[in-house]
């Protein structure tokens, strides 16, 4: 079975507050990342070398085998290290 294109499967995922992870503004980008830790209702991932603690409902399995980060609104254009307050959702790569 082949892997799905990113924009063909992300439309039904939401963050912990119920906001769609990926919007028409293309705020999700493929990145380097991995799972670091799971605790009660929180997940720690590393995104672009930065550890991030996110609510478990904002962390989803990737359906295309890649790690994706979805930034909030205009923050997707910001340069520099990711910050937890910038991230709406992440999609963990298979095995992540």
What does this structure look like?
The chain has 96 residues and is mainly beta. It has a domain at 28-92. It has no helices and seven strands. A four-stranded mixed sheet has the order 1-6-7-5, with no helix packed on it. The chain is globular and about 30 Å long. The mean pLDDT is 84.
Keywords for this entry:
96 residues, mainly beta, 4-stranded mixed sheet, 3-stranded antiparallel sheet
Number of strands: 7
Radius of gyration: 12 Å
Largest sheet composition? 4 strands, mixed
What level of helicity do the residues show? under 10%
Structural class of the helices, strands and pairings?
A: mainly beta
Please provide the ordered H/E string of secondary-structure elements: EEEEEEE
The portion of residues forming beta strands comes to 35-45%
What spatial order of strands do you see in the largest sheet?
A: 1-6-7-5
Count of discrete alpha- or pi-helical segments spanning 4 or more residues? 0
State the end-to-end CA separation. 20 Å
**Rounded average pLDDT:** 84
Low-pLDDT runs of 5+ residues are: none
Shape: globular
Please outline the helices and strands.
Elements (H helix, E strand, L loop, with lengths): L27 E3 L2 E7 L2 E6 L2 E6 L3 E3 L6 E4 L15 E6 L4
């Amino acid at each position: 079975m082949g892997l799905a294109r990113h924009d063909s499967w992300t439309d039904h995922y939401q963050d912990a507050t119920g906001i769609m992870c990926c919007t028409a503004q293309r705020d999700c980008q493929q990145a380097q990342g991995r799972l670091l830790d799971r605790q009660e209702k929180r997940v720690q991932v590393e995104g672009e070398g930065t550890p991030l603690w996110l609510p478990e409902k904002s962390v989803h399995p990737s359906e295309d085998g890649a790690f994706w980060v979805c930034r909030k609104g205009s923050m997707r254009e910001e340069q520099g290290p990711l910050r937890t307050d910038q991230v709406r959702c992440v999609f963990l790569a298979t095995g992540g």
